[in-house]
């Protein structure tokens, strides 16, 4: 059964999104052997993970790193075949590495509080075995910032080597707030295994303050070659390949967020697991791979049953590191194992709980509750219970859902909004949604896209103004919109940063999840059923508010009942009919060209007066290779007059456009046809067709206004080779039910706008449903009052600018408190 909270849920950087880095590797033609990507990783690691101290060596995994470092330390101590002194409570890799380095593990007991090597036991064994101890290999247990100064002193006093197994410590900060191990006088070995917080796939790094030591280890990791192809040191192949270095670089950009998130989980666990014994920790922060705790002694024998019971409750639990080294057959045969009563007890009682990148502190509290209840211990006190309820669940992380976050960030309210937020997105990332799948230009300007980040008070967003994807948008500043396909990388980059901000504030971004339905309970809160797409796991999340940002579609059932000039469009046109969404999508024009292939002067009729209709016409006209339209080959059938947008009365008049009155002017902006007017590419087409300011209409296009009983329209439909229905979009809404599972009937179900002027979703009677909001394509929003818009406007207003500003703000106001009235008061 799929678990809601798996013990480990590796989240390495998405290889599918690292095309640029992989292309660099291909272009360089260097795949391994200390190539440019590995070198860059090592330099960046030193700078960013080790405060610029010493040097760093990337290796193929931490076990190989330990083998090299242990061998080097033993040789340098002049004790190549002695003991490697290590704690019993660690992973097998520590002892295996010592064996492979030609040493004998000397296994000591652990400290009952911090569970790392017991200082008294180490001292006693050093006294007992003297120079036979070649190397001490402490383990920085579960990412803990153990006392390195003590080992420095032991090394000096006993002439012994030191190598620290810090497999889980990338991201840990010591008491001084310095990265754990930075500038250490001996080798510290970290893992980049997929299951670690610094998740890559396989890989590791060795860091030391002593750069000559790192150089020696680098030579050992490459067959012991200090000079080309001439072995002078013991060695083997431990090199990290270039593609993994590209992945590790991407993780480096993310590790601060990951570590901070995990530290928050640890804090929540510690508070909530009160009755259980926890590890004593050192340092300002650690980056846990999972959360360890001790079961009460009386329950040690029932650990297996407890883990099974937790699994039945959706919680994956484990028992790292049980059996400990001294209990494993290989080490019982090959190592010197001293008595380990503390390690025996800790290993018998240890339980490992999930601490994954996608969890929030509330999840940790939830798991803690499950653990305590399963153990029959006191329930978690009400005060530290999971905020059983989010403030808001946003369904859809595409352009509209993320625009809501952008709006909050522009007002400095992202933390406030995100703290109690769950953002649910079907795909694996938030940002562009389906937008980049269209072959057309945006009806938003390049400046509108960029306004999400330029001067944004959140530094991580403002920094995106210099991002390559922002530059790609900037290139379209003087053009009629941005090709939607080119907007994807920018929207995704913004999405990624917004997602990080949400998680920073304690919210949760659930990518790869789908909302199935939502029920409103008697208290007005929403129970949203969610499905994790990777394995079908279903669960329910609760919130006070729900925002639907799932975009729009062109439903077939609406097409079926569509009448044009008194006739059924489907019945009249049959298989010559396409919907505009299909035409506008990438590849859509190829389908049109196929359908029209062989026709000498093909005739296409586009039905509709919306931006999608005009955009369809514009796309058909600029098809390459061109579709050979003759005169009036493309006819636009529309009902309402087509109006261009003007930024002022003067600019309209200057072009001789006078077809407007006082009700057509927005009182706030002074714009003419601010909402009804076509923009950018569609506007240019309308201006041409209306012959404004001396423009010559395109002879291939004809306009025809449809009336109710209109034989000319029917004749056009009958003669067309292809008819494109561009009837606009209807909102996509998940099923909503009330407490008795009765479907909530929405105005949108019968074709009316989905939302009111406060972006609240309305029922059949036009009444807003409390705590329910809508944003995005087809939401049906009409600005009013303070927000402006022309009085004559009939229809819905859309667009990125509105979502990132007025519309977004209305919803943020709504979900953060009932400030809607003030916001829209005229
Ligand atoms: N020193 C210490 C103290 C260590 O803990 C380790 C590694 C090392 C040294 C050596 O570092 P590396 O040489 O690995 O760089 C896992 C890891 O494989 C191991 O790296 C880690 N310690 C150890 C604590 O845990 P297992 O035996 O628990 O792995 P496995 O296959 O059972 O996976 C654990 C869970 O993770 C499973 O539920 C499945 C899940 N998983 C795993 C992988 C690899 C995924 O969902 N996806 C994946 O890609 O050893």
List the helices and strands and how they pair.
Elements: H1 19-28, H2 36-49, E1 55-59, H3 62-76, E2 83-87, H4 92-100, E3 104-108, H5 119-129, E4 133-136, H6 148-158, E5 161-165, E6 187-191, E7 204-208, H7 211-220, E8 225-227, E9 230-231, H8 242-272, E10 290-294, H9 303-312, H10 329-334, E11 336-337, H11 341-349, E12 350-354, H12 361-374, E13 390-395, H13 399-410, H14 414-419, E14 421-425, H15 446-450, H16 459-462, H17 468-474, H18 484-504, E15 508-511, E16 513-520, E17 526-532, E18 538-548, E19 552-553, H19 556-560, E20 563-564, E21 567-568, H20 569-573, E22 577-579, H21 580-584, H22 588-596, E23 604-607, H23 611-621, E24 634-638, H24 649-654, H25 680-689, E25 701-705, H26 711-719, E26 722-725, E27 730-731, E28 736-737, E29 760-762, E30 768-774, H27 800-816, H28 820-824
Parallel strand pairs: 2-3, 2-4, 3-11, 4-5, 5-6, 13-14, 13-18, 14-15, 16-28, 18-30, 22-26, 23-24, 23-26, 24-25
Antiparallel strand pairs: 1-7, 6-7, 8-9, 10-12, 16-17, 17-18, 19-27, 20-21, 29-30
Bound molecules: ligand T4K.
Ends apart, CA distance between termini: 55 Å
Q: Helical region count?
A: 28
Q: Helix content range of the residues, please? A: 25-40%
Bound molecules: ligand T4K
Number of strands: 30
Q: Extract low-pLDDT stretches.
A: 380-387, 819-826
Give the radius of gyration.
Answer: 32 Å
**Biggest pleated sheet:** 9 strands, mixed
Overall pLDDT confidence: 92
Shape: elongated
Task: Return the structural class.
Answer: alpha/beta
Classify the beta-strand content into a percent band: 15-25%
């Amino acid at each position: 059964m799929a678990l809601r909270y798996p013990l480990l849920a590796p989240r390495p950087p998405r290889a599918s999104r690292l095309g640029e880095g992989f292309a660099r590797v291909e272009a360089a033609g260097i795949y391994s052997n200390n190539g440019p990507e590995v070198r860059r990783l090592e330099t960046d690691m030193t700078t960013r993970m080790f405060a610029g101290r010493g040097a760093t060596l990337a290796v193929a995994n931490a076990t190989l790193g330990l083998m090299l470092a242990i061998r080097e330390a033993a040789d340098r101590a002049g004790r190549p075949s002695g003991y490697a002194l290590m704690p019993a409570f660690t992973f097998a890799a520590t002892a295996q590495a010592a064996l492979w380095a030609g040493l004998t593990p000397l296994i000591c007991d652990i400290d009952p509080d911090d569970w790392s090597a017991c200082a008294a036991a180490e001292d006693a064994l050093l006294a007992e075995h003297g120079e036979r101890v070649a190397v001490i290999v402490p383990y920085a247990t579960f990412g803990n910032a153990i006392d390195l100064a003590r080992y420095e002193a032991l090394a000096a006093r006993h002439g012994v080597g030191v190598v620290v197994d810090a497999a889980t410590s990338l991201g840990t900060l010591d008491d001084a707030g310095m990265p754990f191990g930075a500038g250490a006088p001996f080798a510290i070995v970290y893992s980049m295994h997929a299951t670690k917080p610094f998740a890559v796939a396989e890989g590791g790094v060795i860091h030391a303050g002593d750069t000559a030591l790192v150089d020696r280890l680098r030579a050992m990791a490459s067959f012991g070659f200090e000079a080309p192809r001439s072995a002078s040191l013991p060695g083997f192949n431990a090199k990290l390949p270039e593609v993994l270095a590209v992945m590790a670089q991407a993780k480096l950009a993310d590790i601060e967020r990951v570590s901070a998130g995990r530290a928050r989980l640890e804090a929540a666990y510690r508070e909530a697991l009160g009755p259980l014994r926890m590890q004593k920790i050192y340092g300002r922060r650690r980056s846990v791979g999972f959360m360890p705790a001790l079961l009460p002694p009386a329950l040690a024998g029932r650990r297996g049953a407890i883990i099974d019971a937790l699994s039945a409750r959706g919680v994956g639990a484990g028992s790292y590191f049980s059996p400990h080294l001294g209990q494993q057959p290989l080490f019982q045969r090959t190592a010197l194992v001293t008595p380990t009563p503390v390690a025996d007890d800790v290993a018998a009682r240890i339980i490992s709980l999930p601490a994954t990148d996608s969890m929030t502190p509330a999840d940790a509290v939830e798991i803690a509750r499950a653990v305590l209840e399963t153990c029959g211990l006191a329930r978690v006190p009400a005060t530290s219970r999971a905020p059983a309820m989010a403030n808001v669940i946003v369904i859809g992380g595409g352009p509209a859902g993320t625009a809501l976050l952008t709006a909050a960030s522009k007002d400095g309210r992202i933390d406030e909004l995100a703290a109690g937020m769950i953002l649910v997105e079907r795909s694996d990332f938030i940002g562009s949604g389906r937008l980049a799948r269209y072959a057309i230009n945006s009806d938003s300007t390049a400046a509108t896209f960029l306004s999400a980040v330029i001067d944004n008070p959140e530094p991580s967003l403002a920094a995106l103004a210099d991002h390559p994807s922002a530059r790609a948008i900037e290139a379209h500043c003087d053009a009629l919109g941005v090709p939607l396909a080119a907007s994807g990388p920018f929207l995704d980059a913004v999405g990624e940063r917004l997602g990080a901000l949400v998680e920073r504030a304690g919210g949760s971004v659930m990518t790869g999840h789908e909302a199935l339905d939502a029920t409103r309970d008697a208290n007005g809160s929403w129970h949203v059923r969610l499905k994790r797409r990777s394995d079908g796991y279903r669960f329910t999340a609760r919130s006070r508010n729900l925002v639907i940002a799932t975009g729009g579609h062109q439903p077939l059932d609406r097409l079926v009942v569509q009448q044009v000039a008194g006739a059924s469009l489907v019945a009249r046109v049959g298989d010559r009919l396409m919907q505009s969404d299909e035409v506008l999508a990438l590849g859509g024009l190829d389908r049109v060209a196929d359908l029209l292939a062989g026709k000498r002067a093909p005739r296409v009729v586009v039905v509709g007066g919306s931006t999608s209709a005009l955009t369809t016409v514009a796309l058909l006209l600029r098809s390459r290779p061109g579709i050979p339209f003759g005169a009036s080959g493309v006819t636009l059938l529309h009902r309402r007059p087509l109006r261009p947008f003007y930024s002022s009365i003067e600019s309209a008049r200057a072009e001789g456009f006078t077809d407007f009155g006082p009700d057509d002017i927005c009182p706030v902006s002074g714009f003419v046809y601010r909402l009804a007017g076509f923009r950018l590419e569609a506007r240019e087409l309308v201006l041409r067709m209306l012959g404004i300011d001396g423009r010559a209409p395109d002879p291939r296009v004809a306009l025809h206004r449809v009336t109710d009983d209109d034989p000319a329209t029917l004749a056009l439909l009958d003669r067309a080779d292809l008819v494109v229905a561009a009837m606009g979009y209807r909102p996509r809404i998940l099923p909503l039910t009330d407490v008795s599972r009765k479907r909530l009937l929405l105005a949108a179900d019968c074709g009316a706008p989905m939302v009111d002027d406060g972006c609240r979703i309305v029922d059949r009677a036009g009444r807003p449903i409390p705590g329910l909001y809508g944003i995005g394509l087809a939401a049906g929003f009409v600005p009013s009052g303070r927000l402006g818009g022309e009085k004559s406007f009939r229809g819905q207003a859309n667009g990125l600018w509105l979502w990132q500003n007025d519309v977004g703000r209305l919803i943020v106001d709504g979900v953060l408190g009932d400030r809607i009235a003030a916001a829209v008061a005229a």
